[in-house]
Write a structure and sequence with these properties.
This protein has 405 residues and is an alpha+beta fold. It has helices at residues 11-20, 30-43, 78-81, 103-106, 142-210, 217-247, 260-277, 297-313, 371-381, and strands at residues 47-53, 57-64, 70-72, 88-90, 113-120, 126-134, 255-259, 281-285, 292-296, 320-328, 331-338, 385-391, 395-403. A hairpin with a 3-residue loop joins strand 1 and strand 2 (57-64). It starts with 10 loop residues before the first helix and ends with a strand.
Length: 405
């Protein structure tokens, strides 16, 4: 029976590519349906199809004017079309040597006219066709062939977009799963890590309080160093855990109305004692007009607390740090200014990267390089903006900004 098409020489590879598109037996898609409807209107035919040739069937991703969703590959005209890059044009199937005995011609459908162009994947595999059909003979001009080729190219592009979207969704799913596993692992490690660390810190505090009179100055310095190292490790553990939770999107956000000036007063009161201990003049500037914003109150405290902590670290005794807010242009901005050492111009682009101390790795000032990275992630997660201005030797101004409500 001459109407049965031979298999392409690269059939195994072609089928593997078709599987890679994850499109067989998917739900109807308006993007493909618009193409077949347009093809039917453009050429004035009752049937237009986007067909994909599987191992033993042709399945219609889109079908205009045809009630069935698939048919056997053995009787498919499209199985012939994918054997070549050239369009297959059958103006009168009754007179065509390959198809005059086909069940599609002799049987119920009574197919007489067929025109199809192969849909080609990026790797060159012909996966199916864009085709049109009629139950009466038709002439098909060179201009018609050009138009059909153009529509087939659009259909091929839509197939590529479908595959890209599926791959992107799979990547996101895999990344989410990986982040969740990482978060659980870090949570477990954090728990196992904190238990002995808290014991070390507790014993060091006991030594400081109860044995200070019995220990010499050198021994007391050892105890202080042990305590400082333990506290640093505890901050590192907490910071890594927070970063993992942010990346896994499991950090809770209790979005609520927050009064801007009330937040400034609260943050100022929390950090004023540290300013006094460090010999720093800590100032606050109120909003010119009342304003509020929608955000997580605890995360705002953490972000501004990080800005202030950094400002205190890098401002010498006698210097100034200012906390303030501004309500301008429908946006509320919170800022922390300092008269400290500033950030070198060539390191400023790295400010919000994890574990980056901006060239101060050898400094005696304590720090992990995680605070600003966490502040940035939290701000962006709350739909805010974050930024800074800095000049080496003249200080820095870090800020966050949210829409006013």
């Amino acid at each position: 029976m001459t109407f049965i098409a031979p298999l392409p020489v690269n059939e195994d590879r072609r089928l593997a590519t078709l599987r890679d598109y994850r499109i067989m037996d998917t739900a109807p898609d308006e993007r493909f349906d618009r193409l077949t409807a347009f093809a039917a209107d453009l050429f004035g035919v009752p049937v237009a199809l986007i067909s994909l040739i599987d191992a033993d069937r042709q399945w219609f991703k889109s079908r205009h004017g045809l009630p069935v969703s698939e048919s056997p590959r053995s009787i498919s005209f499209c199985a012939h079309t994918i054997l070549d890059d050239e369009p297959l044009i059958v103006e009168n199937a009754v007179e065509h040597p390959l198809f005059r005995n086909s069940p599609l011609v002799c049987g119920g459908p009574g197919l007489r006219f067929y025109a199809g162009v192969a849909l080609t994947a990026d790797d060159g595999q012909r996966l199916g066709t864009l085709c049109i059909g009629d139950n009466k003979p038709r002439q098909f001009s060179d201009e018609d062939v050009i138009r059909l080729r153009r529509l087939a190219a659009i259909a091929s592009d839509e197939l590529e977009l479908h595959r890209a979207r599926i791959q992107a969704e799979e990547i996101v799913t895999a990344q989410t799963a990986a982040n969740q596993i990482k978060s659980k692992l870090l949570s477990s490690i954090n728990h196992e890590f904190r238990t002995p660390l808290n014991a070390i810190l507790g014993f060091s505090q006991i030594l400081e309080m109860n044995m200070g009179k019995r220990l010499g100055r050198e021994e007391l310095e050892y105890v202080a160093a042990m305590k400082a190292a333990g506290e640093n490790l505890l901050r590192l553990s907490d910071g890594m855990m927070t970063m993992a939770q942010i990346e896994a999107e499991v950090v809770p956000f209790g979005i609520e109305a927050v009064g801007a000036q009330a937040l400034v007063e609260e943050v100022y009161a929390l950090h004023q004692p540290a300013a006094m201990l460090n010999g720093i003049t800590f100032l606050r500037r109120a909003c010119i007009s009342a304003a509020s914003l929608q955000a997580d109150h605890s995360h705002l405290l953490r972000i501004l607390g990080n800005f202030i902590s950094n400002a205190f670290k890098f401002t010498v005794p006698g210097g100034e740090v200012t906390l303030g807010c501004a309500n301008e242009g429908g946006r509320v901005t919170f800022y922390v200014e300092d008269s400290g050492c500033g950030i070198a111009a060539d390191r400023q682009r790295e400010a919000f990267q994890s574990f980056n101390r901006l060239g101060r790795e050898g400094s005696t000032v304590a720090g992990l390089g995680l605070g600003l990275a966490i502040a940035s992630r939290l701000t962006l997660a709350m739909k805010g903006e974050i930024g800074f201005e800095s000049r080496e030797g003249a200080g820095s101004r870090f800020w966050i900004r949210f829409p006013a409500t």
